[in-house]
Amino acid sequence: MANDAIYIHAKLNDIAEIRAGHPFRGSVPEDVNGPVSVIQIKDVDWTGTVKWTSLTKTRLEGRKEPDWIQRGDILFVARGTKIVAAYVDEILVPCVCSQYFYLLRIKSEKVLPEFVAWQINQQPAQTYLVKSAEGTAQVSVRRSMLEDLSIVIPPLNQQRIIIELSKSALRERELLEALISNREKELKAIAKKLLEPAIAER
Question: Model-level pTM?
Answer without folding.
Answer: 0.83
